[in-house]
């Protein structure tokens, strides 16, 4: 005999996600509860929380960050979601990214690699393809803009200095910071990474638009080539 489905409305108020959010704040809720609120409703035999749990469990290794990698068609394929629920999830993720980016100009500067990593990590650290990003700054290292210069397949990408410096001139940038993610999650630099950095430093000297750093983004950590390769930066790169 099948058990009767219980609606979220039948849960005590203290267990309902929206009521918990109103009383405790969004930060107190679990990922399942937050996604359940976005979904709004369940199906004939599952609550919104059940669907949220199923969605998280279906992601690779149950990794919440992988939700950011799903597109509209992929989300619609999850049982019980459909176009409306998929659209709500994607809209919430995109709004979060835009709020994060909108706060950037308020920061005093981006002179610390930690600040640059916090800026770029949410959007790029978990990407399955390699993205090469450039962040442009003014004379006080204050954020001007950021651009994805190239997007490669897995761990291969081509970087054209000409395009970077054209963008720098367009934004009136005094300097820039380069960054790219390693889809493997390991931020250890490759020989190609070092060669790309050499080219950008040398072009920056000619154009008088300095490369301040080149960050390699891992999933939970990063490498600053300016810090790790200080000798090369000051001698071989500029020799």
Explain what you see.
This protein is of the alpha+beta class. Helix content is 44%, strand content 14%. It is built from ten helices and five strands, in the order H-H-H-H-H-H-E-E-H-E-H-E-E-H-H. The chain has a five-stranded mixed beta sheet with strand order 2-1-3-4-5, sandwiched between helices. Helix 8 links the parallel strand 3 (175-181) and strand 4 (210-217). The N and C termini lie far apart (79 Å).
Keywords for this entry:
44% helix; 10 helices; 239 residues; single chain
The parts where pLDDT drops under 50 for at least 5 residues are none
What percentage of residues falls in helices of 4 or more residues?
A: 40-55%
Question: Order of helices and strands, N to C?
Answer: HHHHHHEEHEHEEHH
Write out the strand line-up for the largest beta sheet, numbering strands in chain order: 2-1-3-4-5
Mean pLDDT level = 83
SS class: alpha+beta
Total strands: the figure is: 5
The rounded Rg comes to 22 Å
Count of individual helical segments = 10
| Biggest pleated-sheet summary | 5 strands, mixed
Shape: elongated
Query: Beta fraction of the residues?
Result: 5-15%
Straight-line distance between termini: 79 Å
